[in-house]
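pasting for the record
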Amino acid sequence: MTYPIRHVAAVPALALAALALLASAGAAPREVVLKPYDGPSVKGADPSTLTGKVMTGYQGWFNCPGDGSNLGWVHWGRDGFEPGNITVDLWPDLSEYDDDELYDTGFRHADGSVAKVFSSHNRKTVLRHFKWMQDYGIDGAFVQRFANGLKGGDVRYHKDKVLSSAREGANRYGRTYTIMYDLTGIPDEDIVKVFDDWRMLREQMKITEDPAFQHHNGKPLVALWGVGFNNEIKRRPGFAECTELLQKFKADGCSVLLGIATGWREQDRDALQDPDLHRVLQMADVISPWSVGRFGTLDGVEKHAANYWKPDIAWAREHGVDYMPVIFPGFSWHNLTKGESPLAHIPRLKGQFLWSQAVANKKAGADMIYIAMFDEVDEATAIFKCSDQPPTGNGGKFLTMEGLPSDYYLRMAGQVGQLLRNEIAVSETVPSCAAPRPAVLNAADWKITFPVAGEKGNALEMKNPDFSACISNDCTFPENLAPYVYPVSGGVAFHTEYTGVTTSSKTKYSRTELREMNGNTEAGWTLDEERTMNARLKIAALAGGADKLFFMQIHGMDPASEPLLKCIWEKGYIRLLTKSGPRLKDFSRQPKYTAVGLDEWFTCSIHVDREALSIKINGETIETYGRDVLDSWPEGNTYYFKAGNYLQNNTPGASSTVVFSSLAITKNESPNRKN
């Protein structure tokens, strides 16, 4: 069986002609996407090098009627999307998508409900995908940019918009990204348009100036895919034209990755036979042979490692070129071939197939890996969240997840990175990718308050050992409390809604909030006992008019449980309130500080001792208070930390959700003493 080298985006010529007529008739103005990025950028994966990274390919080629692209159904089906007209073998898990990201299809679930899919044209969806990359430890993405679609019109605009959304997602979620130009099918005379496109992106989008843009060897990295193949499977541009294109990118100050044929070293199988091939490959900074479909069993993985990966890596090191192997979870194109190929032509084997490739490359000496692909459900190489219950109610035929969780392969991708960086031991055994997530917090340090009435009518508290037992069991709380604390991708969600239930008659808002403890005893420390609270979190959702909440605090125990520091998220900004006078309400109202958007991860650190109180957001100190403030705090008082979701809205229907991926308190005996 011959497998495709890559599946190339295509739109029927008649459809393109019709779309051109619509455009000329005067379509509504579209968002300008070819512009410099001016949004927030979070530090995360190191963009300076590919070494040590697990990257993935991001196709971004899915369209739906009504998504604003004017392209109709693209890459879901041929001339529509219903039974008998379908080109995908996996169905995405859509349980986390919002309603404005979903589009009705002609398929139905077993219960008769209409099945929906997403569109890559939807900015919100692309951001969600990059958020998943962050959640599961995938370093970044090669955003696919097909050379045969750069001429203009709706197809070109879609590619530009996906790139713009991917750029924003990478910046917002601390991932890296770069462009991979797929040269498949482009005529030799048009290959220069690839470099023209690159120059346009550099000039209009200032793309290489983005903090998240991937570099390598001290230069911005760009990938050219489809160099050095023969034409036995698909039409490739001429080798001379590819060489000239490579030289143009090198002259433009770029580091270049070449996507090349499996048989490049011996010039066999899918590789071009040319005496100049090796010389040209040595001009690249990184070479990455395509391996999807080149083997299909565990025995095939072993043979491919011995015959290709291991000697390839040795050759690359000898000649001063970096080597990025490609691994893939499985392969199926039953619907794309109209049933000529069986489902699961290359079985995933519940992760064993992908993991065996990762281990083989680690043993062969690989120090970077490309996973194909993030979102390609066409040939079923996708590693993003897919459904174990695809719509089969009216004749659909799809792969399942073999009973595995929808995020199983995302978890495995993160563990491939750990394997690559020597953070876990090399083992042929598939890791437990469905294991409970790492602990977000030490339950012994906290008790929790819920917006649910307890026996005396005030807010219900849960202490240890009950709290520890619930949260350590993947957040399995009693039914009445489960809506307020639950696991999500990347952490634990603390949800609050106005219920009218408060902690005392002195408070008027509902909360799902943690209070510092020493086991079952309420913690209380002095300023002579140095304390730090560190957290990584995001304000995940707001509803019903809610726009403000407290997420971390310092309280005094006596005489009236005074709040002394409040960390507040309000309308996209973080600001502080700090007690700086003798009365309970003597707070200094600080100006707006760091802008942190909704659903955007950030870190917060509060450090206090006798001499100073300092607060950091994303590693940068935004305020330090000295003795003038600390000495105004009540003499002889003791203090404690609070964290969670204290909603500042008592309107029925108001709610908020805060997700913590980590929360910890460190304790030290401070050398500072009050004079």
